[in-house]
Amino acid sequence: MDVGIIGLGLIGGSLAKSIKTNTEHRVYGYDLQDSVVKRAQLVEAIDGVLDDEKLAQCKIVLIALYPDQIEACLKEYADKFPVGSIVVDCGGIKRDICRLGQSLAANRGWTFCGGHPMAGIEKSGFAAARQSLFAKATMILVTHPDVKDLAWLTMLKRFFLSLGFGRIKIATPEEHDRIIAYTSQLAHVLSSAYVKSPSALVHTGFSAGSFKDMTRVATLVPDMWSQLFLQNREPLLRELNGLIERLTQYRDAIAQENREGLEMLLAEGRDVKAQVDALEKAAMAQLEAEKKL
Question: What local confidence, expressed as pLDDT, does residue 209 receive?
């Protein structure tokens, strides 16, 4: 099968390398930077350039660009995606992009599906791409809840599992954006704000794993993440407001030297973390059991 990838940065480049490493599919890639495409060819991450001729042969097309670029790409290629192909965007926001993709695909004979590979590192660009990036990670497939034809969805699930993903999660655009505001976007806002303390510049020798964990994703790409935050502003604002309210409770307990209240807050956080860990453990056990069937 021929697979096309538009955008060969960290995600697109890693997808290309994963496909080449784990499958027999042919991969054709395109990037705004010609030097990136040439480098991808040199390291055999792609089999060739994704031009109009190669695009016409592709059964699956993956779009790995910034949110505003994804929208522009869908509009530009709407009449070029081959009939019968499946187009998957791999961005971090879904409502508007899924609405656009599904409307463009409706009368053109190709299928659109939102996608979000839940993996990443604090580096960007093709130079950081690795074939192991998605090992055991979750791939979220985002589609309309009333979808009737499940054959293409089954095909996509098998395709992404073959690349090393450990779990496929199906979600609606609204569900995706609401939850990702908490699990990803809020964490990036918090990390960026946390590292701005003046103490960060004099912390050497006084930090361990906690500091590294809290600051890791502050090394983000401002252009991309600002787009993600603003396009998902309502769910993200709800999470931010909730976080500010909870932080205020901790601040007040400390300011008032309320040890009993502070212990209660800390115990609540510990208990919620235990619940989260238990749910994740149960989900992984169920996943392993399903694989054995």
Answer: 86
Domains in the chain, start-ordered, CATH in brackets? 2-171 (3.40.50.720), 176-292 (1.10.3660.10)
94 vs 88: CA distance, rounded Å: 11
pLDDT of residue 145: 67
What's the pLDDT score for residue 248?
A: 98
pLDDT for 156 equals: 94
- The pLDDT of residue 146 is 67
Burial of 139 from C-beta contacts in 10 A (0-12 / 13-18 / 19+):
buried
Tell me which residue of 126, 121, 129, 134 sits closest to 163, measured CA to CA. 134
- DSSP line for 49-82: E--HHHHTT-SEEEE-S-HHHHHHHHHHHTTTSP
Which amino acid does the sequence have at 227?
Q
Q: Quote the CA–CA distance of 91 and 116 in Å, as a whole number.
A: 6
What is the Rg, in whole angstroms, of the alpha carbon atoms belonging to the chain?
Answer: 21
Could you give the CA distance from residue 27 to residue 4 in angstroms, rounded to a whole number? 6
Q: Hey, what are 213's tokens?
A: 């964990």
Point out the residues of the chain with pLDDT beneath 50: none
